[in-house]
Amino acid sequence: MFQNFYWKRKGLPPGPIPLPLIGNLLSIDKLGLEDFFNDIKNKYGDIHTFWLGESPVVSINDVPTILETFVKEGDTFAGRPTNMLVTDMTRHGRNGLIFTDGPIWREHRRFALHVLRDFGMGKNLMQERVLDEVSFLIDEIKKQIAAGEKEINIQDGIDLGIGSIINALLFGYSFNKNKQEEFYELKTHLQRFMRAVGSPLVRLCDRNPLMFKMLPFIYGDVTRAIKELDGFFMKQLAAHEKEINFDVDIEATDFAEAFLKKRKQLEAEGVKDHTFTDKQLYGACLDLWIAGQETTSNTLAWLVIYLMLNPEVQKKVHAELDSVIGSDRFITVEDKTQLNYVNAVVAETQRFCNLVPMNVNHRL
């Protein structure tokens, strides 16, 4: 009792008393992450501690401390927790871009940024890809209106468009009409995976591997979800590798091709202990997919909801677009500096929307 209620909490910021083995997971499960965080912030202040199983998590909620910790002292707190079993199961070890740290993280973050910039991130090439998907979405909505449909779900179209852009960057092709079923298959796998790994019981097992043996049904759900994702991405990567002609010195057209060509180059130079492995490629593609799809799609979903609930804001957005853009062309990046109200609405959506209740943990 002394160990649980006092000693293990000594030196940490205040917070709710954890239960043995499960920490504060019962409260998280009962209230949900959003209400749980609001509750303990109101009770214990902007900096507090809660427990996932036997692992303490220090939560920071004020802007000055966030800037001090993750900007000014970013390198100090850039590490990831070491006890993340489900993460390691998903990525075949500590691979990918989100949950790695140290030299492998720096190397592959630098590589990913370099490749994505080459493919037009922030440039006209990326804009063209986005506008192609926007045009397709608008055409589909017009078809539904012409068909007399009273209710139109634009979220599926948004998801598909974002997925097409990400997939083109990763594997070189978008989800056109012949490939849409492939997208919905992947979306189903991702949703099942996110549900499986997001449950409080899995959070408990993530930090206490012995719990998996005590809860075999949880282990089964997680491994099935991981196996589905693994099979989908590995199939993509294997097929893509067969299509690449490594004997021809031409620029890569997608992330997977650039990665595989980099590996071929290192092997030709006699480098044996490189980190450009199949597992790292899988982890990087999975991380880019999840980070790009979920955050962008959910942000746009919140934006649509806020505009529907605030018609006066919607009218002002429409008026500014009519004034600056007109009705005979698409918005482009060059228009951004003239769309002050639209920029403000987007920024307020990003500030206000419930996008990621709990961010990726950092190692103290």
Q: What is the CATH architecture term of the largest domain?
A: Orthogonal Bundle
Element order: H for helix, E for strand: HHHEEHHHHHHHHHHHHH
Structural class: mainly alpha
How large is the count of helical segments?
16
Radius of gyration: 23 Å
Low-confidence segments: none
Number of beta-strand segments: 2
Helix content: 55-70%
Q: How large is the share of residues in beta strands?
A: under 5%
Termini, distance in Å? 26 Å
Largest sheet data: 2 strands, antiparallel
Supply the CATH superfamily name of the largest domain: Cytochrome P450
- Tally of individual domains: 2
- The CATH topology of the largest domain comes to Cytochrome p450
Task: Supply the CATH class of the largest domain.
Answer: Mainly Alpha
- The largest beta-sheet arranges its strands as 1-2
What global shape is seen?
A: globular
Average pLDDT confidence is 88
Description:
This protein has 16 helices and 2 strands. The chain has 364 residues and is mostly helical. The chain folds into 2 domains: 2-77, no CATH class; 109-298, Cytochrome p450 (Orthogonal Bundle), CATH 1.10.630. Helix 2 runs antiparallel to helix 10. The mean pLDDT is 88.
